[in-house]
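Appendix B. Chain record.
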Amino acid sequence: MKTDDRDRCQLQVPAEPQYLPMALHLVSDIAELAGFDQRDRQRIEVAVEEAVSNVITHAYPEGGGVCGLTGVITPTGLEIRIHDTGLPFDPEQIPDFRPDPDGKTASSGLGSHLIRHLMDEMEFCNLGNGGKETRFVRYLPHASIFEGAGHPVQTDDVVVTDPGEIAIRLMDPVEAVEVARCVYDAYGYSYVYEHIYYPDRLRAMNHEGSLISAVAVTGTGDVAGHVALVFDPLDPGSAEVAIAATKCRYRGHAVVPRLVTFLEQVGREQGLTCLFSQPVTAHTISQHVFHKLGYHTSGFLLAHAPATLSFHRIAEDLAQRESVAIACKYLVSPEAVTLYPPSVHARMVGAICADIGLPATIAPGQFLDDAVRTELQSVIKTGMLVASIHFSRFGADLSMAVRHEVIRLKREGVQVIEASLDLSDPAAASAAGLLEDLGFIFTGIIPTGAGGAQLLMQYLNGIVIDYQALRLESDFSKELLEYIRLHDPQSG
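Structure tokens predicted for this chain:
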């Protein structure tokens, strides 16, 4: 993502109540520069006030600390980061928010409740010896395709038997509205990547490089389909092939396969080493498309998407949260690596590596280092009620750190927690064992752009998976899912 340092402001203040107005003044000014109106600026100020107050109260209960605040103007809005090196976060010391029975609002736990509802994204980082950081994102109030159009969004169900020549190319910014309408035609308003429904956001994200959109355009200028490469700053050598949509009337004309093939070449030109996709399991159509293009299943994200996800004229009513497969493909031949999975899953990890073409030596792991503190980053996808945890370092305090984070995420209403562990780290084996003790289950691996792979583990908050309802195409996918089921204590 391209961010100009001129759009970044930083401030460090003593963690004392009298310095709070100074921090809020900075936030208000940078929010105004970002383009937010007075009402939205006030919402951002309230969220930051609550977060900084939490630092003052809980991180430095005896005073004497410092709170760092960073504001970054992005093409889509504003990012705020609040950093401290105070006491480690203990969610058990912060009560849940519950209104009083008489209808009055209780103050206990109100801060977290306010922040969650005032900001669009919230991320927490445990930086080990570096302290901790909370990141908020507020998007500019761009209009979606459902707002201000002057007429309802409509779809055309008349099947086009001969669409003529279809051009495959990168999206022109002026086509963002038609791309949003294409996704609506395919999914209704149920697609989990909600930015796609906001043309201004889609244009901005393509401009900043956080995604690359490709479109299929007919001779009459109709956008028949769309697929994008979505980048993760934590793994710059890979990208997700996502937001694949074909208008209903153009189905059957290999629109998505052509778009994916085009984006694979774009990925090679970008220097990417591998791509992955998340084909759904409500039906096998997307799995078939990617398997035919040379993608191999390496894992699953169970209950990853809400049951409200809909596929027009394919699978419109889901009985449970939608599970997705992880299908990956190398753009260049991977180098040999050594991986350290937990011994109980070593055979399956080796089998996955063999199937996806990753030459891997499976080695025994090491114990966690008593001198190292765990570093992790967790991100809540609010609309999906899913959180992801990424570890940058495993320490002897891992069990406590993860336990605290699970408590915090459950209080935020998260239903599924997805953890990824770097299998190139010899401590990954011990870390995975501790996560299993906390209720996480093994769900596969995903290769990384830098070489190696991440172990996938999930915590299902009160969710029982009906494994029989998942529709799979390949024999190896079925074998892997059965292995996961057998190691899921909730599967019966």
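Further analysis of this model is presented in Appendix C.
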